[in-house]
Amino acid sequence: MDTFSSSFGDLWKIDFESTVKEFEFTKNAAREYHQVIESDDFRDMDSNTIFTYLYRKMKIIVFRDHLKRYIYERAALTEPFITVPEEVYREIVAFSFEENQTPFFLEPNSTKQTAMIKGWLRQDRVRRDIVFLLGFGLRMNDEDVSMFLTKALQEDDFHFNDPKEAAYWYCYRNGLRYKTAHRLLEYAAADNKAEGQTEVKAEMAPSCFAPVGSVRQALELGLDKKENMIRYLKMLGSLDESVNKQEKTYRLIRELLDRSKEEVVRLWQTGRIYGQDDPGRDKAVKENSGKNAIEKNGWKNNYGKRRVREKNIRDKQDVTAADLERYILSGIPRTENRNLQKSSRSLLSRQFRGYRLSRQRIDGLIKEQVQPDRYDIITLEFFLHAQKENTLPEERCRIFMAETNRMLEECGMMKLYPVNPYDAFVMMCLVSDYPPGTWSDVWEMSYEE
Fold first, then answer.
1. Any idea where the domains of the chain sit in the sequence?
2. 310 to 89, 179, 323: CA distances (angstroms)
3. Where are any strands of DSSP class E within 184-321?
4. Which of 63, 65, 200, 442 shows the smallest number of beta carbons within 10 Å?
């Protein structure tokens, strides 16, 4: 078991050719991505090729896969990855938790220890606090925990506006145990009450008055040092509760929505309408499929024929959440009441986790009634970049990735990740000849019986 606590440097001594190499999710996904977009089928029938890959070929990587691979690598197991029984992983987890003096529960719980470990090794998804618990129990560093938060859970990175997560990050960064994080939080809270808010704010540097938004900012402020982290935790305790921890993300979403509305105005005024509420559209979807259907039914170049005459869009103030939905999700069939078909009916619902930028979600984002996530940013960015003409596909995708990754990082969210089916779908569409048509076509195929 000593090898489990050894450094990651030992990892490269393993014979990856016969063990875990073929299970490296990121490399496999990147390789498959390039195989798809460079194939003859993609050049001839890009929509069909993308749909087939997402629905029939792409492996969905869930939490248990990430956890087992991590344990396998950290424990420097040498037998083939696929042959390692679950019992071995259970023993490693139990030993490591005991060695690192980590409780198996953050809150009082009647579940047995063995049942908890089995659950972690078998679940597709776990709560965020379980990742933090595993971080201490398996003695992860801050980068390891970030990987689990952003890639395994596909959630935000550390929330530095949450004192608990900030303290956890400090401990992971410095190789400290779970009990140290609690002592740190208790000390900061008690000291803060004793000194009072005024003194606490006065001693803080101006750049620390607002919660940190990313690991990079935390390091720039020296929060990996004990004295700085304590001052930061005291500052968080003195902040007014009205401070909106999601303000930066909401501001970015508002900017993207405004730009998207401007794009809708441009498309409308040039006659490029995405089959809005077209009564013959569902019938056409059933009669025709694939890229040819877009060309045959005028959805690709003859949007003027589909124009809804009673609607007049002159500027972005005229663009509603429903208008944005019709443009962005034009490929999804509608009910008789003109609502989107249920996401559960899509063959790609599991791959996309049921995500769609519907008008209800758009309205909630505008009113700040729903919490924005990375899929909102990726989708709106795709819509904007997909409309750009006279740009080579590879260059269009490269610019999209650079700009989107910058935004995601600023919001503390996971960057584009080819293991994620939705991310792969978006990037594949962008390297196709006609991204809006390909995007719409794949959505259509996913709803066909």
1. 1-154, 160-244, 247-446
2. 63, 65, 13
3. none
4. 65
